[in-house]
Design brief:
Length: 384
């Protein structure tokens, strides 16, 4: 392998991306150019060709030494590792903004989708709705596919659209601490976060992955008092439902028994088959007492066959769902980490958060010292 020449004043960062978008994106060995005796690396072939065509367009914009742009730091981790807590602490410490990438991306994506729908509606103009039979009135409304769905030519470039959305929500002019959790997304959204960030030239400078033991996740995220309250509420609800059903059925049974235990209409008072009212009521009471006992046994058997899940069962179900989420989170973190490392992003993956949040904060500050407290000569250090 030939020896690399002196690094440029941009270090290993892509000069085109730096000048055009203000993001520090590491250039790649495969995309390198030697200009004026120095080695420049680029984020991709497009940036390499732009620079080679007119280097002065970029070198003339660069003041030496190059000032580091505003920091772009991403925190990720399994649920329960304290990502939100640490982002809040860092934002307060450095007086910078936080970015919930998922929430902001989905909001902007839906806003843009609604704008396109309105534009299609205005372009087409009013269209009289299709007539419907009276029998169809209660059916689902007819979906206007022409308006609701994006055209095929737009969907063919949807990846580029997603890149533009990230470029919008991640401006270069201000420092950003990003929450990069991306595992619970709409099923119809086919988007890989790491790939899209790379293609959009919006990769963070450093990614900090927070992890914790399973037991810590359970302790932090499971509220035993909430489980107890929900259990008691479900027991009360089941009891009220069974009581209401029992009262309804008992009233129907009483009507039936009273009909079976009454004298025929029009019987004379001296009719030998005429039964005293006391005897009829006794028969009714005996029949209803027997029904009450049977119903009590039936309800008890029903509860035994289908009991209200107790607190232990509920906690075990919650823990199992959390284990599934942890496994999903770990898969996502591994994929994200590998992809960003391949593109020159520093990934810090050795911070466990089973200790106090304040001590975790101190550890993160130590890891970020060269990026935050000593940021002034960040690019100069990259030239070594």
């Amino acid at each position: 392998m030939p020896r690399r020449g002196p690094k440029s004043d941009f270090g290993d960062y892509c000069p085109v991306t730096f000048c055009k978008s203000g993001f520090l994106v590491k250039g790649k060995v495969d995309f390198e150019a030697f200009v004026f005796g120095k080695s420049y690396r680029f984020a991709g072939e497009k940036e390499q060709e732009e620079f080679k065509f007119n280097p002065d367009a970029y070198l003339s914009k660069a003041s030496i030494p190059l000032p580091a742009p505003e920091p772009k730091i991403m925190l990720v981790g399994v649920k329960g590792a304290g990502v939100t807590t640490q982002i809040e602490k860092l934002c307060k410490k450095f007086k910078i903004s936080s970015l919930d990438m998922k929430a902001e991306f989905l909001k902007l994506m839906n806003d843009e989708k609604n704008k396109r729908k309105r534009a299609r509606l205005l372009a087409r103009g009013f269209k009289e709705p299709e007539p419907r039979d009276d029998a169809e009135e209660d059916q689902e409304p007819i979906v206007d596919e022409e308006i609701e769905n994006d055209p095929a030519e737009f969907l063919d470039t949807i990846g580029k659209h997603y890149e533009e959305l990230f470029q919008t929500i991640m401006p270069a002019a201000k420092p950003i601490l990003m929450d990069g959790h991306w595992t619970t997304m709409p099923e119809d959204l086919e988007l890989n976060l790491s790939d899209t960030l790379v293609e959009a030239r919006r990769t963070p400078e450093v990614v900090i992955i927070l992890r914790c033991k399973e037991a810590s996740t359970f302790t932090r995220r499971i509220d035993d008092n909430d489980i107890k309250m929900k259990y008691e509420a479900d027991c009360k609800k089941r009891g009220e439902e069974m009581k209401a059903a029992c009262e309804k059925d008992r009233a129907e049974k009483l009507t039936e028994v009273e009909g079976e235990n009454k004298n025929a209409e029009g019987m004379a008072e001296d009719d030998p088959e005429l039964k005293p009212a006391e005897e009829l009521q006794a028969a009714i009471d005996e029949a209803m007492k027997a029904w009450d006992e049977e119903r009590k046994d039936a309800d008890a058997a029903a509860l035994e066959d289908d009991p209200v899940p107790d607190e232990k069962t509920r906690r075990e179900e919650i823990e199992e769902k959390m284990r599934e989420q942890i496994e999903k989170d770990n898969g996502y973190l591994e994929e994200l980490s590998e992809k960003l490392k391949e593109n020159g992003v520093e990934v810090i993956d050795n911070i466990m958060t089973d200790i106090s949040a304040d001590y975790v904060h101190i550890k993160i500050l130590d890891k970020l010292k060269s990026r935050m407290q000593l940021r002034k000569d960040l690019i100069e250090r990259e030239q070594a």
